[in-house]
Write a structure and sequence with these properties.
Four copies of one chain form a homotetramer.
Chain A (H helix, E strand, L loop, with lengths): L31 H7 L2 H4 L3 H17 L5 H21 L13 H13 L1 H5 L6 H38 L3 E6 L2 E7 H25 L19 H6 L11 H6 L2 H27 L7 E2 L18 H8 L1 H15 L13 H25 L1 E2 L1 H6 L8 H10 L4 H17 L10 H10 L16 H7 L8 H15 L1
Antiparallel strand pairs in A: 1-2, 3-4
Helix pairs in contact in A: 3-4, 3-7, 4-5, 7-8, 7-14, 7-20, 8-11, 11-12, 11-13, 11-14, 12-14, 13-14, 16-17, 17-18
């Protein structure tokens, strides 16, 4: 293992029975570096089940339009089913994986021909690897979105669980990482849910943009054979009809880009959550205690409990962003029609998917096992004048224009600071009214002002839809409860 | 103008009538660099009309729930309408732009207070710049998408016009920039239309994800005042209801990210078109002639006609990608709740929008004015064995399994090369059948094989839906015609 | 100001005296969008002084090799000097800026010809805009690096000042944002200095890579005229000799990329510092107090003191990363030789430079005016077992293998936690030795163990070079003192 | 193999002999996802030889300062040497790789302890994984740069070989992909050499920035033990002395960023070369013929010879850019001191290195085996008025100011076009002088003007240093010859 680690093993020498499936003119087998350089098998074998599904749909359509016989179809279906089973079982050890065949498509076709002969030679009728891989990619994306739906469900359940347990704890919210207004813990949890649910909807919206079937577009221009592309699409649940134009169908990688982008925003959202909770887990905040399963120690400092999973979740935003940039770069300025550059799409998309999927699952586990430390949080609720805005709103209700109210409260905060008081409620009614009088609103405050002060009072007073206090949290949680049940 | 060019002019000294609107504690005015460092006015003033629209909707809601009087509302509406007119007319020269007020929001509020006094001081009731700017951004995005719709319409018309004029010309298509199958020019034009129309749908799909109204979320937690957020949303055509959660509403920049991404893919699509046509415009290809308005000359080489607009369209992909990465970077790992970092969202989004919008408009003009050179294209149609795939498909129709047919045609191409023949149609029937026989399919070819050879024949033979030959082009063009009429 | 804001004003109609300098075949003037689309004048006019400097060097060389007369040279030099003075004075208002001339180069040449006639027409002898702009870019980079050196000096002085004032305060250091080992404040300040000083060295190292003179490379292939490229280079302080190859010289934008990258890493470094101090400035940490000039308030919450400048410094990392990606994207996959795409290099480079330069200057001001709150920091020094590593090292000195020592201290930390003790020093000697005995190192501790405990003791005990305790800080500060004096 | 493919296999349950090396508090082993989530062993095992080298240097230093005994050192050295041999031989199958130990460092230390007992437990004295991995990374970078030097040497030899064989062929150069001036093939080859050689120098310049030794910095603050960091550095050839500051040493990933950037620019440079040659290999250009080993065929179109390796080289720019962005993203905004995010640095750096390294090696092979088709190139040399600039320079020599000469040649080009002449040399002397007279330079041309026309004449006339014609090419080739011999 020198600095340069070759990606894959070397090819077998000599002619092989499956060589008939080898593309004409492919000189790469004559040069070991070339073989390694062009292969995508090391990562695209992951598409084998989608490739087989697509091939079966294609074969059935070929039969429907009379291009192959019933017997051919039967042989193809049987052969592909048996290949699928072999790979399910043997995985990377399946002997059909031959690096000199370059990719998953040729390996499976060659194995099929070896199994069923001429029927296998007919499978590629009216098809090119260009439209085949475009289809496989879309089928994989559909599957991956389904898979992510399951993980999103875990995430949602994890946060809802946490909200049900610790959601009512009163805590400060932060803008600019400075104490802003009081909220309940559940108010912030609902924010993560809102953002992540939007991530899920983005994934679906973008997948829908790419749900037309490219198969039947051939290498670039279509086919002179009487393919029935609608019939092919009808057999594939994930897709809804044929693509509009053959050149676009084989040249586009929008399906990969769109998913990579949706993953990148998901990673970004998780990075914000992770950062927030890393800060909450610091000694200074001590707002949360992470479960021991999701912290690790230090090789040098015996006392450490580090939030490594949160840090990795944050850091892996790099993987998602990097994959998106890789795909965007790959597509920039290449001519229309398939170019070999496009082969790399899967490498980047898979990397982003694996990383974000794992981070989501980790998020679900951390969410459901973390504890908010009510005692610590409550102990410091008096700091930071969290009720200043509520006081300004009290003044508004009492007829003071907001800008003036904002000024009055500003002066009261300064008064507290001068007197070394930490809370507005420590001021006397006359202090309040003195400040009001100076702003030409004498006697604006009454003794009920104290009902608007203190974090515990304020969180009960929020009335606007979507608020992060008691009423908002309860309504939002109810909606989530309903959704998840 | 030294290497470092300060962005903006210096602030005015001394207290001003609008100073009451100045945020408490803002020390930046005491340091010229700080003033320049925090201001966003130099770019966010572009939001003035959206800011005013949002403020009017807010004021009407405040009246509806009784937080301000009918008279207050009238004063606010009149004041804002007059400010809007002033800025419409005076633009950057409007005296209300005061850099020490930092942004468009404070400038307009301060001007309003100056005009209408206490009514103006009430406008910010139950509102923070945090939810205000989130709203302005969404309103701007909605407007910008509308504006792009108009430009997309120009682009579509430009390509359809070209397709109607030159679409029937037979030409080679390319994969790997190697000659692949014959198509008609219109087949490729339809590919650009398909890709760009998907760009437009992406813009809309992503905008819809962000069409809920953040106003009423306040600084982060909502408000203790009885705001009616639904009522606000109802007044704003672009939006459909209140956001779910106040913290998410003020912390998220997904609206900016989503649009930046949709613009990036649009730029990428244009870069592929531009590259293709730059190559088509080379002396060696000479497939197209660009209109003189869209080429420029050289300061040194007197004979040049350079496709500069296409090159700039390609190069400006950098602006769109860069803006997307800037936004993604900005959002990575920041805590929830508003952070000042987010202010920069507009800078990047506006840059991407201006650039892509212009490129689209340029694309429309180039598309409608470019000529495909039929003579030159036709002259070389015999090169590159464009009909090889059609010949393989002929053999399939004649009962030869595709893989075997592929091999037979491969050997025929090699035969041509050995004999120095450029076209398969120059072979004799016996040559065809000799190759077939060697592959154990004797007499597979009949004299009708010649009807499948030659680019002009092939483009008429394509039958698969979406093909880039005659039948596919005609159907696709008809659909576009219908859509545009 | 609709969503789309055109970048520049419209061109003047009709033939003008300077039209002779207009590139042949430039059709863009016939279409307003085209004029706006191709112009770079709106941002490259910033290069005027570098352009003139390069032109004078070129003219002197032309005289030296006899291509122009002494009189021509005198006219050119006088004309250019007067143009430089005009622009110095009039800036953007200089009447020579004519958008239909596209760029700074043509504007200045046209103005020169208008001033001095045929001598001006000779200036472009053996030169193209392609090599001219490559030179201007390198001259600008050299100037900008000089300018940054001055700002780096301010930054260094700012941190050294802070270190001299607050550097001796004992504080916790953090890994994973968890309390790690005790350090002195100055130990961390020295880390920022080390990282930023490496940024400065990177800028210089990369500039040196691009310090050869492209002028004399012409449009792409060089010139048939007897240009003396060494003579040109000799007149330009920033450059050291002619480029090796004309095609590479005019096609490369490595000078822009290299600087953009160096700026991106600088922005990244500043983002880490900003994040750290934003956290230090939170109520929960309260480690630092930012000067009032570098915080701002809230439009809604009267009590806020937000670290906006730090947040913007963090967020503007987006601008630097985005510019780098824009440049990398622009250069990806374009053919060799000048392509118009390259024109955009300056737009991105200038944006990155302006942003990072300002952030550095802001960093200098914040560094020199921030106060570390010794009282608050000291009050919590007992938390987090900061001395655990030192204790393990004590055991090592006493003959316990490190891994065993690590285990022993781990068990002692757990013992404290069980007993609700916050500090290791609260344990008795027998507690220490009991744990040692269990790990088969009985009596490893003596009473001097207490000299290794407590943050204040530990910071004095660090002995390794570069340590962040007392001895390391003092040595490092001394080196900086020496460097800056 | 579902859409989600777990990265690694599951951990073994139950306590193991090497558990003593496990970090205290690491709960990850209790959760399979957590184990997989935090491990870096699947990619960082590649560092094993650097890790062992670093450990030996550390152990010798520990001995030197008396922290371990001669016997301990001997045991450690022997143990590590035997582990190195085992891994050399067994690679990924080495039984010491235990995913629950997370990384290469712990696996090797655990294996050492198992082999040599307490001596092994002393190895980590005064060391943390934080400084250990920072060292390993730098040692790997140094090795990788050495490896790249070898590949660069192949690339240089490949291009020089090609230049020696085909360099003298006259061909057009291109700006804007439009024919510009005539050059010799070698003139362009020298451009690729210049650009790639700068890539190599960039790698070295950036590596030098990061050549100080972080070991001895401990977890973050340094050590209370009397480590001699200079002594450690002295044993490591690649490094030159201890880092300045312990916090910076363990927090910085500049070494990874700097190399990733240098690789990104190398990839970009290769993408431009690849694009150029893909275009040259098109039927329309037919400037080059690629060796059969470096083209591949089509699964559908039997006639294809696709430049897949060039396309992949171009497309893999995405990998390099993506890795750089991933690293930049990872580092953005994290606090100082080690954070677990940083672990991912190697994943991205290795991906970029493997990809660019292979592309460079492929470039070397393609360069040395490609043939320029002199006949085809020469056949079209008359097109595009390649000699227009030379004619303008002739006029300059004859006393016409360049701008005027530029205009005259422009009018002559238009005259040719009107008369359907393809070459300036087809005009008569009187045509030349008529155009000169109209520009007020009568009789500027003499019969020797024809010696300046025609590509073959022009390439011999270039005189400026670095030109891409005969003289420039010969000088540049000689320098390369000398360098490589």
């Amino acid at each position: 293992m020198p600095p340069h680690k070759p990606n894959t093993s070397s090819p077998a020498p000599g002619p092989k029975p499956w060589e008939h499936a080898k593309p004409t003119g492919s000189g790469s087998a004559q040069d070991e570096l070339a073989t390694r350089f062009v292969e995508s098998l090391s990562y695209d074998r992951r598409l084998y089940t989608h490739d087989i599904t697509g091939s079966i749909a294609h074969a059935r359509m070929l039969r429907k339009v009379g291009l192959i016989s019933v017997k051919d179809l039967a042989a193809i279906e049987k052969g592909l089913a048996s290949i699928r089973k072999e790979i399910d079982k043997q995985g990377d050890a399946w002997p059909g994986w031959k690096i000199e065949l370059e990719d998953v498509h040729m390996c499976i076709e060659a194995a099929l021909i070896e199994k069923v002969g001429d029927a296998g030679r007919k499978l590629h009728t009216g098809r090119s690897r260009n439209d085949q891989v475009a289809l496989d990619l879309k089928l994989w994306v559909a599957d991956a979105v389904n898979e992510l739906d399951k993980v999103f469900a875990q995430v949602f359940r994890g946060f809802v669980l946490l909200a049900q347990r610790d959601g009512a704890i009163v805590m400060p919210s932060y803008t600019h990482l400075q104490r802003a207004q009081p909220i309940v813990v559940g108010g912030e949890i609902m924010a993560w849910l809102a953002a992540l649910e939007r991530c899920q909807r983005r994934l679906h919206a973008l997948r829908l943009l790419n749900s037309d079937n490219p198969l039947g577009s051939g290498a670039i221009a279509g086919s002179c054979l009487p393919l029935d592309r609608k019939a092919t699409a009808d057999q594939l649940d994930a897709l809804v009809g044929p693509t509009f134009n053959a050149i676009d169908a084989t040249a586009s990688r929008d399906a990969a880009l769109d998913m990579a982008y949706a993953l990148a925003v998901t990673a970004m959202t998780l990075s914000r959550w992770a950062e927030q909770w890393i800060i909450y887990a610091s000694t200074e905040f001590s707002f949360i205690t992470l479960d021991g399963r999701y912290t690790t120690g230090s090789s040098m400092m015996p006392q450490k409990r580090n939030p490594d999973m949160l840090e990795l979740t944050r850091g892996r935003t790099g993987t998602a962003y990097g994959s998106l940039v890789a795909l965007l770069t790959m597509c920039k300025g290449i001519t229309v029609g398939y170019n070999r550059d496009l082969q790399e799409d899967k490498r980047h998309l898979f990397a982003a998917y694996d990383s974000v999927r794992d981070s989501l699952e980790m998020c679900a586990r951390i969410a459901s096992t973390t504890k908010f430390n009510e005692k610590t949080i409550t102990a410091s609720l008096g700091r930071g004048f969290l009720d200043a805005t509520a006081l300004a709103e009290y003044l508004v209700v009492r007829g003071v224009p907001f800008r003036t109210a904002h000024q009055i409260v500003g002066s009261l905060v300064r008064l507290c600071e001068e007197r070394n008081l930490h809370e507005l409620s420590q001021l006397k009614l006359e202090d309040f009214n003195h400040a009001c009088a100076q702003a030409k609103h004498p006697r604006a405050c009454q003794s009920d002002v104290y009902d608007w002060l203190g974090a515990a009072n304020v969180v009960k007073r929020y009335r606007s839809a979507g608020n992060a206090g008691v009423s908002g949290f309860e309504i939002q949680l109810k909606q989530w409860d309903k959704r998840l049940s």
